[in-house]
Amino acid sequence: MKKTNTILISALTLMSLTVVANEKTDKNWIQQLDNQGIAAKDQAYCYTNENGIVEGSNLDMKIRLASVSKLLTSLWALDKLGVDYKYDMKLFIKGNNLHIQGSYDPFLGNEKMFFLVSQLNQLGYTKFDTITFDKNLLIEPDVQYELDQYPNMGPISNGRNVKNYFNTQSWSADTKAEYANYYAMAKAGRFVKDVKFEVTEVKYVEENPFKDDETAKVLTLSSPPLYKYLKEMNIKSNNTVAETVFRQLGGIPNFKVYLNERFNLNSDQIQFYTGSGLPSVVNGVRRDNYATCSIMLNLISELKSVIEKQGKEIEDIVAVPGSDGGTFRNRIFPTDYKNSFVAKTGTLMHTSTLAGAMNTQKGFSFFGVFNQSTDIGGSKTVQNSMVKSIMTEMGGPKVFDYKVEGFHTYNGDTLKAFDLSSDFSTIEEGLN
Questions:
Q1: What are 217-232's pLDDT values in tens digits?
Q2: What is the DSSP string of 213-231?
Q3: Strands 97-101 and 127-133, sheet pairing
Q4: 222 vs 409: CA distance, rounded Å
Q5: N or C: which end of the chain has fewer CB within 10 A?
Q6: How far is CA 298 from CA 249, 256, 294, 365, 367, in A?
Q7: Is the pLDDT of residue 179 over 90?
Q8: Would you state the pLDDT for residue 54?
Q9: 417 Cβ partners below 8 Å, 6+ apart?
């Protein structure tokens, strides 16, 4: 979907955007809001026309972002880590003891831990006397499923989970069934059908007991490249993954510095409290991520630019309606729109948002529709109509080459010896 952006952001400062009104899209906007009984004063929409000029309504009004926030979490991660960044879990084995050095992997749940245990079985390991682990091991068994709140992951919960995974005799019927499901979904040879493991003691340690022991065997389990993680995060709107990535990069204070130094943006223009778009409570007061429609167009434009400079396309990171399921499984667009635009949804009890980028006959267009209303169904109707209105105004869709790929939390590589010359760096229902 490569096309030169026309509202490009300079290296350090957001450019001022020329803003004009479009009679056709504005008329449809007002009509659709009126049809749904939604007050126009609290709503915003915007897009870039064929000349890169921004058109829309309430462009500079502060609007809640909800899960559209994940597009900017993706931008930050790609800017700082790169599309090919991997989370490498190191395993240090000495005698009958194992130390797990975590990597802050945001997708460390059932599938990946089952894969790890199975891979160790294939290498001939079936029992450890002791397993130790560090602070960078973050396990959430259900991380691939929808979680409305960020899970409480710490030494106690991580130790309990490690002990459960490595004691297969005590697996519940549900655990066994889930393992069998991952076995069935995987390529031949990835999982042992009848996995068997046991461990006597599991404990958290501050320091790797084998870090200076040259006789310890070192293995690594790599994640898929970061862009695949982000793609899955955006398709499913995975709140846990988004927040983990956000925290890995330094959270609220570091993101504020990033926005200021990279784009000359301050807290009056954009503010994040979470990487997922979930609200946060600060000093007893609810806080929501916010920005403006025009700022979001600039930053989505930059997301596309950063991705392309690293050899990928925006559809490699953001969901493609009509092909990818996830939060678009119940959204209906014309059939010829398939593989012609990318987008991210967002839903809170008083917010519904949609933003992304279109490939059109008149060129590339960035767009956003931000509804601040408790009428979520009505807001989505407005958004769907505005996508059609903008696409029509831009001459209709232009299809790009896109093929859906399956997703696994483990890489195509199996557990292998680690190259010691290298290293690695360290609430609300309905949100989607």
A1: 999 999 999 999 999 9
A2: -TTSEEEEEEPPPHHHHHH
A3: parallel
A4: 9
A5: C
A6: 22, 17, 7, 11, 10
A7: yes
A8: 94
A9: 217, 218, 219, 220
pLDDT band for 18, please (50, 70, 90 cuts): very low
CB-based contacts of 249-254 (< 8 A; 24+ apart in sequence): 249/76, 249/77, 249/80, 249/81, 251/275
| For residues 364-368, average pLDDT | 97
- Average pLDDT, integer, range 65-88: 98
pLDDT of 421 reads 27
Q: Which residue has the tokens 């493991």?
A: 197
Could you tell me the strand order of the sheet in which 97-101 lies?
Answer: 198-204, 127-133, 97-101, 88-94, 217-222, 416-417
Residues 6+ apart with CB under 8 A from 386: 25, 28, 29, 32, 45, 367, 369
* pLDDT grade for 412, boundaries at 50, 70 and 90: low
Residue 64, classed as helix, strand or coil, is strand
Indicate if the pLDDT at residue 427 is higher than 70.
Answer: no
Contact 254, 112 (CB under 8 A): no
Residues paired with 358 in a beta bridge? 341, 365
Q: What is the rounded average pLDDT for all residues in the chain?
A: 90
CA distance linking residue 173 with residue 345, whole number of Å: 36
- pTM for the model stands at 0.91
Pick 63 or 151 by higher pLDDT.
63
The number of helix segments (H) and strand segments (E) in the chain equals 10, 16
Q: For residues 249 and 72, give the distance between their C-alpha atoms in angstroms, rounded to a whole number.
A: 13
Q: What are phi and psi of 29, to 5 degrees?
A: -60, -55
- Closest residue by Cα to residue 245 from 261, 231, 262, 260: 231
Comparing C-alpha atoms, which of 222, 196, 219 is closest to residue 118? 196
> In degrees, to the nearest 5, what angle opens at C-alpha 234 toward C-alphas 230 and 235?
115
Q: What are phi and psi of 404, to 5 degrees?
A: -70, 130
Q: Which domains does the chain have, with CATH numbers?
A: 19-83+228-393 (3.40.710.10), 88-222+408-417 (3.50.80.20)
Look up residue 81 and give its two tokens: 């880590």
- For residues 328 and 343, the answer to whether their CB atoms sit within 8 Å is yes
The stretch 385-401 carries a mean pLDDT of: 96
Burial 137-162 (b: 16+ CB within 10 A, else e): bbbbbebbeebeebbebeeeebbebb
Residue 309 has which token pair? 């400079």
Residue among 411, 418, 295, 373 nearest 39 (CA) = 373
